[in-house]
Write a structure and sequence with these properties.
single chain; 700 residues; alpha+beta; seven-stranded mixed β-sheet; five-stranded mixed β-sheet; 16 helices; 24% strand; globular
């Protein structure tokens, strides 16, 4: 072993990114490339009755305008959000009803503004309530899990509990907003479709395009060499890649479609709003007797996606009587989809807030309450945990944060007009892994080439995969090169569900370990082409495990609440994690801190409003949808405990991309309660909301 794994190695592509030589999907120039700009529907429900393109076609530089009237039919797919320009039907506001293709981006934008569309508008319904008459219990929720799970008699146990909380929380719609908007450049060449796209998984894009354009997959090449963030919204193909391929086919030229940011909330998914009801019952010693978590959310009318926000309650705490239920209403809204830590982020916000409220009812330290309710096995499945060091994270976090010096009484610390408080929350995220293939080649010059269709979305995948390969080969890191991000490479799953490194790394490890054995048996110089070895983890990575596999963590927050303005400032954020073996200390810390910062945004600044009259999201750009900046947190730290787990993969690693967001919002919300004595149960904790609560409670 060379000791590469675990080292704080700098990202291999860092220099290219800061120098501007790393090319993204919109930056593949050619002399005849055209640009395209979509036209969104301006009604929330109805039909297009006419599209007047004359003024658009008169704009200098406009080549064509595609609509449902002149666009050839696609072969169809299992994702209705990709069936663009195929019918007159408008399922929600922002649905694309035309595409203007032009010589330049400016001409395309001007042409799109000149298109005139008429509609037969219908009455729409976009407002989610827990009592909505259309609410139903689906068969399953996102991730393929059952919508309902029940054990024992939760209602009876709750009614007879010594301590009880029955509380409701609301998390608004949230938007992914990656730095690089969803963009694709497509061209047709000798019957082949060649695409550069901003995607978390090129394999899924190729499958979708093959179905839509009725092409064999081997005639499609999809590349995503560099991706400027995704946070789940690029986990499935989006309309930009379909529109680019359509326009390229119709014009016979390469075409780039870069979606304007204001269009993203309507067409690339969002975290659906979730309405939570938590009922926790405990005995006089603080041991849970009943746990009920009910979630109501929305989906679109064209594609069912149900945020699995009650699922974390099936994992976290021992309670003999429990029920988790998901309900959903199909509304005239854009289709929701994945957003960083889907289900877990809103679900754990509600659960960890309710646990804090229960600790208050019991007069118990909130850390001690969590310690007393650590399960011996995963409550839902009954499987033993492969490893569970949540208590270690809580204890280490308590030590680092100085929790023992905390006055537990809410509203007791002041600094002039500022109320000061601290809060804690636990975090969990499942270990996910999928089969992958990888190829490793030993070259005569003493270097090695590892190839796998992984996607680096800014997480440092290239770097950590090279570290895994170097260790398996027993060679210095600088002798290992990595190729990722193309369907011409050995197939691998997308970057999502914190499963990328676990999935790809397994295949890279196996390929490089096999190559090392081949080389040990080889005598004499290597052939000019080198020696190749391929590994496929199908049947092993996807084998059913006898263990429940999860990463765990603990979040701590200190806040200052301004009694004059209602502004909440986070003074300190601390996260401590148990996530198996940390493969790169530098990139891991970056992932943890990024997730924690995103959780801060969820708690304080990020939120979207569905306009009932117009049927669209009011906050549709970064001027109105506020993501946190450096100034929004003055001190943020991420640490981890050493954890060895032999039931995961050859590296002993767990996913880390999402657990950082999971407990952050709850820890901040709990700290605001500790500071003010006011319990806020709706996010985000904006100054107007906080100031109103302070005034109503007399806490100013």
């Amino acid at each position: 072993m060379t000791g590469s794994v675990g080292a704080p190695v700098e990202r291999r592509e860092g220099g290219r990114k800061v120098s501007g030589t790393a090319r993204y999907a919109a930056e593949f120039h050619s002399p005849d490339r055209a640009q395209a700009w979509p036209v969104p529907a301006s009604v929330a429900r109805g039909r297009v009755t006419g599209v007047d393109t004359a003024a658009a076609l008169a704009v200098p530089g406009v080549l064509t305008v595609l609509t449902h009237e002149n666009t050839p039919r696609l072969a169809g797919s299992n994702d209705p959000t990709l069936d663009v320009l195929q019918s007159a039907r408008v399922p929600h506001r922002g649905w694309f009803v035309a595409l203007v293709v032009a010589e330049t981006l400016e001409a395309a934008r001007a042409g799109a503004g000149a298109v005139r569309v008429t509609y037969d508008a219908e009455a729409h319904d976009v407002v989610l309530t827990a009592s909505h008459p259309g609410v139903y219990v689906p068969e399953e929720v996102s991730g393929g899990q059952p919508a309902v799970r029940e054990q024992g008699d939760p209602d009876g146990a709750f009614g007879s509990s010594a301590a009880r909380v029955d509380v409701a929380y609301r998390v608004p719609p949230l938007h992914n907003h990656p730095m690089e908007p969803h963009t694709s450049t497509a061209r047709w060449e000798d019957g082949r479709l060649l695409v550069h796209t901003s995607s978390q998984g090129t394999g899924a894009v190729r499958v979708a395009l093959a179905g839509l354009f009725d092409l064999p997959e081997e005639r499609i090449v999809v590349t995503a060499e560099h991706v400027g963030g995704g946070f789940g919204s690029k986990g499935t193909p989006r309309p930009d890649v379909v529109l680019a391929a359509m326009a390229a086919r119709e014009t016979g030229r390469p075409v780039t479609v870069a979606l304007p940011r204001r269009y993203l909330p309507a067409v690339v998914g969002h975290r659906a709003p979730t309405l939570h009801r938590l009922r926790l019952g405990a005995d006089e010693h603080g041991r849970l007797t009943a746990l009920v978590h009910e979630v109501t959310t929305h989906t679109s009318r064209i594609k069912e996606y149900v945020e699995h926000a009650a699922v974390p309650a099936r994992v976290m705490y021992a309670a003999p009587h429990r029920r988790t239920v998901h309900r959903v209403a199909a509304l005239d809204v854009p289709s929701p989809s994945w957003m960083r830590a889907p289900g877990q982020a809103p679900g754990m916000y509600a659960l960890e807030s309710a646990m804090d409220e229960l600790a208050g009812e019991l007069g118990m330290d909130p850390i001690e309450l969590r310690v007393r309710n650590e399960p011996d096995v995963e409550p839902d499945s009954g499987k033993p945990f492969s490893s569970m060091h949540l208590i270690d994270c809580l204890r280490e976090g308590s030590r680092r944060f100085g929790w023992d010096g905390r006055d537990p009484r809410p509203g007791t610390r002041r600094d002039g007009p500022l109320l000061l408080g601290t809060g804690v929350a636990a975090a969990s995220y499942p270990v996910m892994v999928s089969p992958s293939t990888a190829a490793a080649r030993a070259l005569p010059d003493g270097t090695f080439l590892v190839r796998i269709n992984a996607t680096d979305i800014g997480t440092g995948a290239r770097t950590v995969l090279a570290q895994i390969g170097a260790d398996a080969l027993g060679v210095p890191l600088e002798r290992v090169r990595i190729e990722v991000g193309s369907t011409e490479l050995p197939p691998a799953p997308l970057a999502g569900d914190s499963s990328g490194t676990a999935s790809w790394g397994w295949a890279v490890h196996d390929a490089c370990a096999r190559l090392a054995r081949r080389l040990a048996e080889h005598a004499g110089p290597l052939p000019e082409r080198g020696i190749d070895v391929r590994a496929d983890t199908k049947g092993t990575a996807d084998a059913e495990s006898d263990f429940a596999r999860h990463a765990f963590g603990a979040h701590f927050a200190e806040v200052a609440v301004d009694t004059v303005t209602g502004e909440v400032r986070v003074r300190r954020l601390l996260g401590v994690y148990a996530a198996g073996r940390i493969l790169n200390a530098r990139t891991a810390r970056s992932q943890f801190v990024g997730g924690m910062t995103m959780g801060l945004g969820m708690a304080l600044t990020e939120g979207s409003t569905m306009d009932a009259a117009f049927g669209d999201f009011t906050e549709s750009d970064l001027a109105s949808y506020h993501v946190p900046a450096h100034a929004d947190v003055t001190e943020i730290e991420a640490h981890w405990v050493d954890e060895e787990d032999s039931h995961l993969n050859p590296m002993g690693s767990k996913g880390i991309g999402e657990i950082g967001i999971v407990g952050s919002a709850a820890a901040i919300g709990n700290a605001v309660h500790h500071a003010s004595g006011v319990r806020f149960r709706e996010l985000p904790l904006t100054p107007d909301r906080v100031l109103t609560g302070l005034i109503d409670s007399g806490a100013r």
